[in-house]
Write a structure and sequence with these properties.
Length: 521
């Protein structure tokens, strides 16, 4: 029977349609993850860079598919790691069943051998003609290679299994997932397990979260699919931090790949019209320098900091503007300004310029009025009055000042910076509005908000490591334990509310979870 969509298409094709009166204008461009309209005062030329790669295909955060997409391969390519696809499960030296699901009166099972980094599908309690196969995805389950190792139960057997297939594709940097599917003979009903992977590069909750984030890394653009430009800077920072705290270096390749593919984007050296974006990338490259020792990363961060400094002026007594439109002085851009400059000073022997900027930046920030009477940081200033605008005290506005003050303390040895950071941290960790039920939550959607909590816990962890007794570690562990228990999918993806339940994930939500696991580790 024709489905309704096809039938409607056939009927419409029989109806004569008059020709348009003139040329049809091209459709307006839809703003995707590489398009930025946060500041309406900026000209259209600031929304997209000609040097940025264009995105095709689904880009909506949390995009998922219930069937293979049009761009998915029609058949699985053979992957060879320790072994090539098609290895006999009888050769497995040990395994586990990840999940079992019913298929009518049959059972479909997904098996893994972690040592060989391979999996296979099994159908049991069935009979001749039952089908069983694997699906494999290299983009967090958005698309997949269908029916890998597909086979049917032969006569005289009540069950059957596929051959073993690799989860990852090491030669092509593919970070993968498998699921097992089956269909009873004569039935149109297909049953599939959820997406899972072996524990390779996922041996604990820190590395498992990082591996799930890397499933969203676009090897062609060097950015993270399902999220935007500045969010990708935070995602890369989370991956770099994960390599540092966990010792797993499997994804270090993303550092140079991201740098090489995007260094000429926008205005070059990761500079665009948004000063907070420039600073986020600067922090990513400082982290890259710390991990690799490659000077080019530090030089790029320095170029970004010098660019941002051009937007410091006397309006409201000082501070930098959020964007090149010079319409808003806000908390995130200015706290990042302090952190980047202090961090550069701490890595440039003999420097005095960046330290002076950092000190001036904090002195202005502290006196600006953006820190309210509850020691929480509101979003920014009303430009016409230079007063606190009372807007949402987002979590990242609480976390970045902690990292900035920690870098300033490292630069100067002045304990007053740590004391001030502790007062701010005490306020944010105990705020009922920020932590309903004791779990951090930003009440907002869109593409930006899911990244906020990651920046918060990263800053809090930086302060915590600088203090004797690690006073904020219990708070961080509570967040991580709750997210791991309540907000995690079968493939170690995380959603925005760490208190759960899990509904969807994207690279912004996931990097915040990686930041959390790094911080609590």
């Amino acid at each position: 029977m024709l489905n309704t969509v096809v039938l409607a298409s056939l009927l419409l094709s029989l109806v004569p349609v008059p020709a348009p009166p003139g040329p049809v204008p091209p459709p307006a461009e839809v703003c995707d993850a590489y398009c930025d309209t946060r500041d309406p005062a900026l000209p259209p030329s600031a929304q997209r860079s000609a040097t940025r790669p264009h995105v095709t295909g689904p880009t909506a955060p949390g995009a998922s598919a219930t069937a293979p997409s049009a761009t998915a391969p029609s058949a699985s390519a053979v992957v060879c790691n320790l072994h090539c696809d098609g290895r006999d499960p009888a050769l497995s030296t040990g395994g586990r069943i990840a999940q079992t699901v019913p298929a009518g009166t049959r059972r479909v099972e997904l098996h893994f051998d972690g040592g060989e980094t391979m999996g296979w599908a099994v159908i049991t309690a069935g009979g001749q003609g039952d089908e069983v196969w694997l699906d494999r995805s290299f983009d967090a389950g958005v698309t997949w290679e269908p029916k890998a190792g597909a086979t049917t139960v032969p006569a005289g057997n009540g069950g059957w299994r596929t051959l073993m297939h690799n989860v990852d594709d090491w030669n092509n940097l593919g970070v993968g997932l498998l699921r097992a599917c089956g269909r009873p003979a004569g039935s149109s009903t297909i049953a599939c397990t959820s997406w899972y992977r072996t524990t390779w590069n996922a041996g604990d909750r820190r590395t498992a979260a990082a591996t799930a984030l890397m499933q969203r890394y676009d090897r062609n653009t060097g950015l993270f699919a399902t999220t935007g430009w500045w969010n990708s800077a935070n995602a890369l920072t989370a991956i770099i931090d994960n390599a540092r705290v966990s010792g797993m270096g499997s994804y270090r390749y993303a550092i140079a790949r991201t740098y090489d593919l995007n260094r000429t984007a926008w205005q070059g050296n990761f500079v665009n019209e948004y000063n907070d974006d420039v600073a986020w990338w600067g922090l990513a490259w400082i982290a890259a320098y710390d991990l690799t020792g490659e000077r080019r990363y530090l030089d790029t961060a320095r170029a970004g900091a010098d660019h941002i400094h051009r937007y410091w002026d006397a309006t409201c007594g000082g501070g930098i503007w959020w964007t090149s439109s010079r319409t808003y002085k806000n908390a995130i851009a200015n706290s990042l300004y302090v952190q980047v400059n202090a961090a550069l000073h701490n890595r440039l022997p003999g420097d005095s310029t960046y330290l002076r900027r950092a000190r001036d930046g904090w002195r202005w920030f502290e006196g600006s009025g953006m820190v309210n009477g509850s020691n929480l940081v509101n979003d920014g200033l009303v430009t016409t009055t230079c007063r606190n605008n009372g807007q949402t005290p987002w979590s990242y506005n609480q976390g970045v000042p902690l990292a900035a003050l920690t870098e300033l303390h490292r630069a100067t040895g002045d304990q007053a910076y740590l004391a001030r950071a502790r007062a701010l941290a005490d306020a944010s960790t105990t705020s009922g509005a920020l932590n309903p039920g004791g779990i951090l939550f930003d009440d907002g959607g869109g593409g930006d908000v899911p990244s906020f909590k990651g920046a918060y816990v990263r800053g809090l962890a930086a302060l915590d490591r600088a203090l004797p007794g690690r006073p904020y570690l219990p708070y961080l562990k509570r967040q991580a334990d709750t997210a791991h228990a309540r907000d995690r999918s079968s493939s170690d993806s995380y959603d925005q509310p760490w208190a759960g339940p899990f509904q969807r994930s994207d690279a912004a939500r996931q990097h915040s979870a990686v930041d959390l696991m790094n911080a609590a580790g």
